[in-house]
Every structure is written in structure tokens, then in C-alpha cells.
Design brief:
Elements lengths: L4 H7 L5 E10 L2 E11 L4 E5 L6 H9 L6 E6 L2 E2 L10 E4 L11 H11 L4 H14 L15 H13 L5 E5 L7 H18 L2 E6 L2 H7 L2 E6 L2 E6 L1 H6 L4 H6 L4 E8 L11 E4 L2 E4 L13 E7 L5 E4 L5 E8 L3 E7 L5 E7 H4 L7 E5 L6 E4 L3
Helix pairs in contact: 3-4, 3-5, 4-5
């Protein structure tokens, strides 16, 4: 669809959003612990993390529904920390849709315009344009109970865009939908966001959703930012063990650390794992800083190499068909379970019970303190 003049204007007015040292506690619970975050003009930034990490609190502060105990919220350098929600140039889409049941789709979309005293004809024309934009041009006269969950969420998105906000806030908007609708709608949201060029903060606990939609992903834990990066960088080079295990599938394989400067390490820390020595990616954890410390090596399934070997020390426990690939669950002699992804044709002969030998490619690996 070709953007109209108002949409093109919105696309050129994308805002820079900054959260500076935000802190917020609820009684003895710390929701945000000095959060610093910048959303670039026109980008879609996903805030990802487990329940209770503070991501929704951060979004509600940006919307004006929560007040920080300390810190600042800036849009294009202007401090809006004390500005009421209705005076912030932001549109919000909630998880629960929050449509008015007694209003049809057109009037739901036009509600904010009505509150701003926009003339009836103008606001209904604007609502019709937006319903067309989200693919609901023929549903304007329907009430919420006459719409599917995905259609209701599209109406909620159109309503958020009606006031032409410079910042769009999405609070887990797809979590209540079934898998097929969720996939379709996330593609539509991304398409609209890119067409409009609107700065967007997207909250989710679904890693696949975040990685597939966002320009960058910010992973939170206990009110703090663990890492912010592009989806590809976040997956390939996680900054911490928490990020590595939260984003994607990761196995822990026992290893033995050789600190930097130890004999034969060429001045860099290395780890002995699966019968070979590999360099450590990044700085080893302090708890594993002594010579010959026991650590866990964190590896992705696609990095694990599996070879059939009648004398191999490992055994295939189970296989899962994933289409082009097959995921193997393999048990090491000490009982450690390792996930490995192989092309389907290579895994055909590796059935449950098969003896195998595991290895890792010759590249640096991430290590973490040994878990019990």
C-alpha cells in the first residue's frame, strides 16, 4: 500500500528515546535497577527477558503510566519524565486489546481523535484509512465481539496509530493469539513499522518473536540490561551466560579451564573440552579463574559435531525431526545431555541407542561456572 501524506510525515519524524538510570521499586521488590537504554530513530527495539525482569515497568514508564523513583526519560533530548501520559506523543498497544465493546471498529480507532475534538468527518476518514492500512477496510462496522483475536489486535494497532504518535509502544501484543495468527500478525506489524518509520519499543518474553522482528534486541535480567545487540550478534556472540541460555538453545558441557598465561595457552585463557583445547571467548568468570578450574562450556546445537563410532563414549538418547534438520539428544559418559542439530540426511542412521563421538569446531567458546 502506498503511504498517504500524513503517514509519510510520520515516517520522517521518528524520535530518539532515552531511558537514563531508571530506578523503580515496589516495596521490597526492585523492578528497575538503574536501566540505561537508547532507542534509535525509526528502529524497532525488542525488550526481551523473563517474567519479573522489569521490561513492562520500563514500557509503562515511557508511556507515562508509572513514575520512576529516580532517573530520566527523554524524547529527542526533551525530558518528559514528569509529563502526563495523555500529553506524551506515544501510542500504546496492550496485550489485552482494550477495545470498547460498545463501539464498532471505526469508532474504536477514532476514539482518541474524538477526545481531541477532531471533527466527525475527519476522524472517521482517518479511522477508515488506518483500518485499510491494517487490512480491515471491510470490517469498520463490526463490534469487537464480531472480530477474531487477530482482527481485534489490528484494530488496537490502528487506534494507537490514529494520533500519529512519534513513538509506538507494544506490550506483548501477540501473546494471547494462536501460533498461526501470531506469525502472520508479527509480519504485518513489522511491515507497518518499517513503512511508517516509527520508533517502536516492543515488549516480549518470546525469543523467536524478538529475533524475527527487531532491529536490535535488549535482554533484561533483574531490572538491568544484560546485552543489547542485533539479533544475529545476540545469538552468535552472547555477552553473558544468561543471554546465551535465554536466547536460543544452549547445552552445557563440562570442561577444565586453563587461565591466561598458563603453560601452552599462548597468553590466552583456554578450556579442555571433549578431548581438545579451545580458546575462551571473552573473559572467564571470576569464580573460574584458578588453574584447572571446572567450568561449563556453552555450545549451540548447530556447533556440536556428531560422528557414528561403535567405540564412541556417548549415546544417542532421542531424535526430533525438525524438517531440514534433526535434533539429537546425546548423553555423555558422566550423564551430561547435549543437544546437536544435524542435516536430516546425516542423522538418518543415528537412532536412539547409537554410539557416537562428539566434537566441537576449532573456535573460541563461552564458559560459565560449573553448575551442580
Amino acid at each position: 500500500m502506498t503511504l498517504t501524506a500524513p503517514e509519510k510525515t510520520a515516517a520522517t519524524a521518528a524520535a530518539t528515546v532515552e531511558l537514563r538510570s531508571l530506578r523503580r521499586s515496589f516495596g521490597a521488590t526492585t523492578a528497575l535497577d538503574g536501566l540505561d537504554l537508547t532507542v534509535r530513530p525509526g528502529e524497532l527495539l525488542a525488550l526481551l527477558g523473563p517474567s519479573g525482569c522489569g521490561k513492562t515497568t520500563a514500557l509503562r514508564m515511557l508511556a507515562g503510566f508509572e513514575t520512576p523513583d529516580s532517573g530520566e526519560i527523554l524524547v529527542d533530548g526533551k525530558d518528559i519524565t514528569g509529563v502526563p501520559a495523555h500529553r506524551r506523543d506515544a501510542g500504546m498497544v496492550f496485550q489485552s486489546y482494550s477495545l470498547f465493546p460498545h463501539l464498532d471498529a471505526v469508532d474504536n480507532v477514532a476514539f482518541g481523535l474524538r477526545m481531541r475534538k477532531v471533527r466527525t468527518a475527519e476522524r472517521r476518514a482517518r479511522a477508515a484509512e488506518l483500518l485499510d492500512l491494517v487490512g480491515l477496510a471491510d470490517k469498520g462496522g463490526r463490534f469487537p465481539h464480531q472480530l477474531s483475536g487477530g482482527q481485534q489486535q489490528r484494530v488496537a494497532l490502528a487506534r494507537a496509530l490514529a494520533l500519529r504518535p512519534r513513538v509506538l509502544l507494544l506490550d506483548e501484543p501477540l501473546s494471547a493469539l494462536d501460533a498461526k495468527v501470531r506469525l502472520t500478525l508479527r509480519e504485518e506489524i513489522r511491515r507497518l513499522q518499517q513503512e511508517l518509520g516509527i520508533t517502536t519499543l516492543f515488549i516480549t518474553h518470546d525469543q523467536e518473536e524478538a529475533l524475527s522482528m527487531a532491529d536490535r534486541v535488549a535482554v533484561m535480567r533483574a531490572g538491568r540490561l544484560e546485552q543489547i545487540a542485533t539479533p544475529a550478534e545476540l545469538y552468535a556472540r552472547p555477552a553473558t551466560a544468561f543471554v546465551a541460555e535465554f536466547v536460543g538453545t544452549m547445552s552445557r558441557i563440562p570442561g577444565r579451564l586453563r587461565p591466561a598465561g598458563a603453560s601452552g595457552t599462548s597468553g590466552a585463557a583456554s578450556v579442555e573440552v571433549l578431548g581438545r583445547r579451545l580458546l575462551v571467548d571473552g573473559t572467564p568468570p571470576e569464580a573460574a579463574g584458578t588453574a584447572d578450574a571446572e567450568v561449563d562450556v556453552l555450545v549451540r546445537p548447530e556447533s556440536v559435531q556428531v560422528a557414528a563410532d561403535d567405540a564412541g563414549p556417548a549415546r544417542v538418547l532421542a531424535t526430533s525431526f525438525l524438517g531440514a534438520t534433526v535434533r539429537l539428544t546425546v548423553a555423555l559418559p558422566d550423564g551430561t545431555r547435549v543437544k546437536a542439530d544435524l542435516p536430516a540426511h546425516e542423522a538418518a542412521a543415528l537412532t536412539a541407542g547409537a554410539a557416537v563421538r562428539l566434537s566441537l569446531p576449532d573456535r573460541p567458546v563461552l564458559v560459565a561456572p560449573r553448575t551442580a
